[in-house]
Each structure stands twice: as structure tokens, then as C-alpha cells.
Amino acid sequence: MRDAYEKEGRERFALKAEVVRLVEQNQKLSQEANDLTKALKGDTQAQGAWGEMILEKLLESSGLVKGQEYSMQESTTLEDGSRLRPDAVVMLPDDKHLVIDSKVSLLSYERYTAASDEAERDRLLKAHVDSLRAHAKSLGEKDYTKLYGVRSVDFVLMFVPIEPAFLLALREKPELFQEAYDRQVVMVTHTTLMATLRTIHGIWKNERIAKNHLEIAERAGRLYDKFVGFTEDLGRIGKSVKDANENYEKALSKLSDGNGSLVRQVEMLKTLGAKTNKGMHEKLLARSDDE
Q: Cα dihedral sign for 144, 145, 147, 152?
């Protein structure tokens, strides 16, 4: 009983410590969430940075590789001196480019959700819709196609990271999407943008597979040509070996076949008294004797 009581006491103390730690973490998270909410509500620059962070997280989650298949906030100076700095540029096969711009519209939307007066809610909703419309118009006027010319796609993606805010505006003004599209701006949310990015990731995957197939075919062609060249060289070597063997047999015949061979002639010189230090090979003598 004493052991059980002591064990229960230790477990109770450990549980208490864990609960205290969880409470502290919860308080910290709550404070950080409050700080973030205050910053996003009152600081336009903080709102933009938050939207860009969400956009980059989406790009990372899609499987695309930064620096190879997309880039963030590339600043480009045009010939007329103006500067364009899209939030993200996604590269496509055939040297095409897709521009993505993040739009965080929190002020009017947040005030709309918190307002209780119906007239005030209507006014804030209209302001929220107008904010999205104005941003789409601004993107259309920037003409990002100047960045890449014919290598650019025909539209810009306008990313609205707060999906309920976009759906609310679309419900209030259904023609909002078409108006933006007519300006070559396509409004996307977290869901639709991820689907688009995953599609692009699949296109890159298929592009690499197709490129590998072409490279394999090219290498196979070079290997085949090399193999044909090898067989031709081997044939020439075989012919050279055959010719060399025939020439060898002819030379050997002149050397040792019959009484008129070179071997028999020089042996006759030795017989006649030529002074020599070496003797002819026995097989050559035997060959000339046999003849």
C-alpha cells in the first residue's frame, strides 16, 4: 500500500507539472495569436508579409522546388524605368512563367464580421468587395506580361489567402470574378491555388519523364551507331588478320619450301664452307627436307 501510494504521488506530481507546462504554452500561443491579430488588423505591411508567408508555404507544400520551379519577390526594372515585383513567379515548361500576387484584405472584412449594426455591415461589406475589385484592377494595369513577353502566360493569379473573405465577396458580387478575369486576373484561394500548383508539379514531373525518354532514345541511337562502328572495325581487323596470315604463309613458303627455298640455299652455303656461329632451326630444315 505504501509503494502504491508513493507511486500515485509521483504520477500526480508529474501530471501536475505537465498540466502547468501546457497552460503556459497555451497562454504563450494565445498571446502570440493576439499579437498577430493586432498586427494584421492595423498594419498593412504586416498583412502583406503574412500573405506572402502563406503563399510561400503553399508553394513549398506543392512539391515545387524554390529557385528551380518558382521564385519569390523578384524585382525587375523595365526599359521605361518602372519596377515590377510580383510576390511569386512559377516557372513552367517551354520557358513559360506564371505570376502570383497575394492579396490580404482584412480590415473591412474583420470589421464586417465584428459589426452588429446592419447598416454598418452593409457599408463594410461593400468596402471589402471594392477592395478586392480595386486590387484586381491594379494587377491588370501592371501588365506583368512585360516581364517575360511571349514567355509569360496570359493571366495573373490573384491569391486571396482568407477563403471565407473571398467567398463572402463573391456571394455579394457574383460578377467580381468575371470582371477580374476580363482584366487577365484570376482570383484563387488556398484550395484552388494548391490544386493549380499540384497540377504544375505534375506537368514538371511529366516533362522530366518525357525529357528522360528523349535522352534515352538519343543515347540509344548513339550506342547503336557506336556498336555498328565497332563491328565494322572488327571486320577490318579480321580481314587484316586473314591477309596477314596469307602473306605469312607465302613468306614461309618462300623461306622453307623446296630445294629452292631460302633455308636450303643458305644451308648449301654453310655446306660449301661458310663460317657461321649459329645453326638453322631444326623445324625449318625438316620442312625443306620434306619438300
A: positive
